[in-house]
């Protein structure tokens, strides 16, 4: 389905992503882990074509993606939705309008500038919001919502695009543990119910283990691990994060249960 | 089983009602938007017709002649192109006078605007009750066109650069005072409170507590104003305030055949404005984005 062939991104003399190569043959939920600066975001941004690759190619269902230009590139972007760490909604517009932005690629510039969306789109937007449990917030301004709610609006916008792939760049990094769980559950449900591929950059190992079918570890721009979550041992994790023996997974975790575990560890120690 | 279907039906009902109320809201918004657009179009069309009727010539009759004057200027200037360098040198002193008028008036206007802005900002003002007085006086300074002040002053002080300088400075004080005061409103009051706790007087609090915070923005606005004032001071030359504008008015009249001089002055003016525009925009970028920009 999706194939990356030695995808490379250079900024000046610095290589952010170094010959990333992997193949995904069926829709699955993939977590990309690695410390900050490892090239995770750059990789996702190249997949969405927000930024151009310096080298290598991306193939989706046999079609070359990395060289698309103009309207063809925007058409690809509409099939490859992106979710951001800081939600990237338009703060002063209402929630439904933000969700309707997912249809921008299909509608005429003129109609969208005057907020003229078809009624069935508006109904669909509210149904998606209901599926994510925030239909009551529909008429409010996006900036009036909490972080977790805003991230769900962003997911609704992504769903409105009816995409084949959903890319999530640190979707839970600015959320509290409770909202992080709601958002990750939503992403997992979308993957299971709609059969869409989800690729998420994650900053916690336990999230990757718990939600993903496949985990890719990056370090200094290179892919250093690619396998099932159960293959992700503490030793491998130390390798990915370049950490010493004092590395503790609980220290980076945001899951509520881990807190109890680490407390127990403390008591035991 | 029945509970589940009942809950699902209820859920469906809430979604329906949310959809309906949102659609109603959207329809209301579209109606208002359409009405506004309609009123706008009607006003524009009728306004154009009124203006066109009152015009000496007609807009559509005159439209095709729009290129005549520039074409003649260019043609004559091209014919006498050998004289242009000499003319540019000849008018250079007038250009310096124009820039001088702009620079002095920007300095004086910015200083006055600074004081006026601090006096008319809530939370900073020396006499909070007088805020409306200072605000209205700035409004008046902005409202009266420079050219009117300059004409009045030329009657009193006779022609020359000084009336132009005063006229532009008054306008600058009003315009910059308004912008400065908007910046000062967003200044953090904690440092001011800190200084007040040490027994500092009002001027000390403003100079040491507020100015360091707002200085980059103030400078950037003042530089923008300097560019505008170069144009203004060139125009004031038309009413006898000296500088490049005075020479331009004499040269650009249709008839005496001095279009080569007009072209030389246009080149000087254009070059100057581009020059200062480039310098000040680079400097302003550095101020707002930090040293590495």
TrEMBL record, chain A:
Q: Does the keyword DNA-binding apply?
A: no
Q: Which GO terms describe its molecular function?
A: ABC-type phosphonate transporter activity; ATP binding; ATP hydrolysis activity
The protein's matches in InterPro entries, at most eight in alphabetical order, are given as:
AAA+_ATPase, ABC_transporter-like_ATP-bd, ABC_transporter-like_CS, ABC_transpr_PhnC, MetN_ABC_transporter-like, P-loop_NTPase
Coiled coil (residue ranges): none
Task: Domain (ABC transporter): give its ranges.
Answer: 2-245
Q: Which GO terms describe its cellular component?
A: membrane
Q: Keywords of this protein's UniProt record, alphabetized?
A: ATP-binding, Cell inner membrane, Cell membrane, Membrane, Nucleotide-binding, Translocase, Transport
SUPFAM superfamilies associated with the record? P-loop containing nucleoside triphosphate hydrolases (SSF52540)
Task: State the source organism's domain of life.
Answer: Bacteria
PANTHER family hit by this protein: AMINO ACID IMPORT ATP-BINDING PROTEIN (PTHR43166), PHOSPHONATES IMPORT ATP-BINDING PROTEIN PHNC (PTHR43166:SF6)
Recorded hits in NCBIfam families, A to Z, give: ABC_phnC
Q: Please give the name of this protein.
A: Phosphonate ABC transporter ATP-binding protein
User: What organism is recorded for this protein?
Assistant: Marivita cryptomonadis
Protein's gene: phnC
TrEMBL record, chain B:
Q: Which Gene3D superfamilies match?
A: MetI-like
Which Gene Ontology terms cover its molecular function? ABC-type phosphonate transporter activity
InterPro entries named among the record's database cross-references:
MetI-like, MetI-like_sf, PhnE/PtxC
What transmembrane ranges does the database entry give? 31-51, 99-119, 258-276
Q: Which residues form the ABC transmembrane type-1 domain?
A: 95-280
- Membrane-related topology note: Multi-pass membrane protein
Q: Record's superkingdom? A: Bacteria
Q: Which residues form a coiled coil?
A: none
Transmembrane helix listed as a keyword: yes
One Pfam family named in its UniProt record: BPD_transp_1
Family annotation (SUPFAM superfamilies): MetI-like
Q: Does the keyword DNA-binding apply?
A: no
Gene Ontology cellular-component terms listed: plasma membrane
Protein location? Cell membrane
Give the keywords, sorted.
Answer: Cell membrane, Membrane, Transmembrane, Transmembrane helix, Transport
Family membership noted in the UniProt record:
Belongs to the binding-protein-dependent transport system permease family.
PANTHER family xrefs: ABC TRANSPORT SYSTEM PERMEASE PROTEIN P69, PHOSPHONATES TRANSPORT SYSTEM PERMEASE PROTEIN
Report the NCBIfam families cross-referenced here.
PhnE
- Protein name, as recorded: Phosphonate ABC transporter, permease protein PhnE
Give the organism the record lists. Answer: Marivita cryptomonadis
């Amino acid at each position: 389905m999706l194939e990356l062939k030695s995808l490379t991104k250079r900024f000046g003399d610095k290589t952010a992503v170094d010959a990333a190569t992997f193949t995904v043959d069926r829709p699955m939920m993939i977590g990309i882990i690695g410390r900050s600066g490892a090239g995770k975001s750059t990789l996702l941004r190249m997949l969405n074509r927000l930024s151009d690759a310096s080298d290598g190619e991306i193939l989706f269902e046999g079609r070359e993606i990395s060289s698309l230009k103009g309207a063809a590139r925007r058409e690809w972007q509409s099939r490859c939705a992106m979710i951001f760490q800081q939600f990237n909604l338009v703060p002063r517009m209402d929630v439904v309008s933000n969700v309707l932005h997912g249809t921008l690629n299909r509608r005429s510039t003129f109609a969208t500038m005057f907020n003229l969306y078809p009624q069935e789109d508006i109904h669909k937007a509210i149904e998606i919001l209901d599926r994510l449990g925030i239909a009551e917030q529909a008429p409010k301004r996006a900036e009036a919502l909490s972080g977790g709610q805003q991230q769900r609006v962003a997911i609704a916008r992504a769903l409105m695009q009816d995409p084949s792939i959903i890319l999530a760049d640190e979707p839970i990094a600015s959320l509290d543990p409770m909202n992080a769980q709601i958002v990750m559950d939503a992403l997992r449900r979308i993957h299971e119910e709609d059969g869409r591929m989800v690729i998420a950059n994650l900053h916690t190992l336990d999230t990757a283990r718990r939600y993903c079918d496949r985990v890719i570890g990056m370090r200094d721009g290179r892919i250093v691990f690619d396998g099932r979550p159960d293959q992700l041992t503490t030793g491998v994790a130390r390798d990915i994060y370049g950490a010493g023996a004092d590395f503790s997974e609980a220290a980076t975790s945001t899951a509520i249960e881990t807190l109890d575990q680490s407390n127990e560890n403390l008591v035991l120690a | 089983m029945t509970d589940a279907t009942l809950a699902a039906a209820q859920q469906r009902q809430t979604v329906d009602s949310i959809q309906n109320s949102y659609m109603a809201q959207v329809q209301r918004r579209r109606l208002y938007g359409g009405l506004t657009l309609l009123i706008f179009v009607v006003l524009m069309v009728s306004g154009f017709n009124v203006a066109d009727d009152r015009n000496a010539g007609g807009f559509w009759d005159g439209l095709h002649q729009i290129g005549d004057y520039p074409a003649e200027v260019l043609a004559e200037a091209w014919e006498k192109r050998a004289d242009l360098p000499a003319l540019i040198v000849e008018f250079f002193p007038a250009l310096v006078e124009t820039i001088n008028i702009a620079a002095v008036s920007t300095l004086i206007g910015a200083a006055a605007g600074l004081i006026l802005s601090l006096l008319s900002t809530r939370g900073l003002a020396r006499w909070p009750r007088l805020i409306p007085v200072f605000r209205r006086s700035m409004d008046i300074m902005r409202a009266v066109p420079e050219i009117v002040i300059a004409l009045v002053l030329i009657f009193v002080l006779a022609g020359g650069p000084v009336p132009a300088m005063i006229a532009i400075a008054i306008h600058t004080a009003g315009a910059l005072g308004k912008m400065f005061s908007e910046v000062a409103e967003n200044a953090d009051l904690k440092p001011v409170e800190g200084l007040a706790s040490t027994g500092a007087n009002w001027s000390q609090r403003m100079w040491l507590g507020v100015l360091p915070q707002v200085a980059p923005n103030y400078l950037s606005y003042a530089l923008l104003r300097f560019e505008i004032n170069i144009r203004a001071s060139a125009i004031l030359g038309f009413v006898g305030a000296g500088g490049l504008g005075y020479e331009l008015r004499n040269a650009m009249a249709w008839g005496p055949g001095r279009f080569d001089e007009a072209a030389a002055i246009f080149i000087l003016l254009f070059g100057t404005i581009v020059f200062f525009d480039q310098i000040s925009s680079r400097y302003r970028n550095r101020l707002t984005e930090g040293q590495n920009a």
